[in-house]
Amino acid sequence: MCKIISIANQKGGVGKTTTAFNIATALALKNNKVLAIDFDPQADLSKYADFDNTDGNPTMSDLLIGKVGMSKAVKIKDCIRHNEVNNLDYIPCDINLANADLFLAGVLSRETILKRILNDDTVKQYDYVIIDCNPSLGVLLMNALTASSGVIIPVQVQDFAFGGLKTLTGVITQIQETINPDLEILGVLPTMVDRTNASKRVVEQ
């Protein structure tokens, strides 16, 4: 059964994309069939995968827009690229994804669009789907968490990091209690840890 895992934190600069790409790569190197999804308009995961946006094939933005009927429907299999170096498949995105709040406004059950997209036989052949979420609490994050069975939260080791963590876990709890009771927090991952006493104190907390 395919496991869909979101890598999420509403704060940028915490190593989220690095975590997502490394987890996807590690799973692929263990002979799992892995699909990584770039769900962040900054498209950093796409860059990690050496995406060349000149092939003319659709991206994550096209999938979303097509699903809500604002353009021609796109098949998910046509969006998948392969990264030979890391032996994983991925769906890239582009800056158009930044307009998601705009083009999804007023769409019925808009927080379930990604879940419906991933409910596809092409996706079911994978062992893992890893979603690199955008750093916000908007409609894209809601879609990712609604579609996922688990979430990993990278947290930069700083004294003020826990305020944002509490906010995010509150959102996750709301989603668990309403539209996705199967969503599980798989772990909080400390990132950018150094040897200082401050880092040690925060990790212990």
Automatic annotation (TrEMBL):
SUPFAM superfamilies: P-loop containing nucleoside triphosphate hydrolases (SSF52540)
Pfam families in UniProt: AAA_31
Domain AAA, first and last residues per copy: 3-185
Protein name: Sporulation initiation inhibitor protein Soj
Species of the source: human gut metagenome
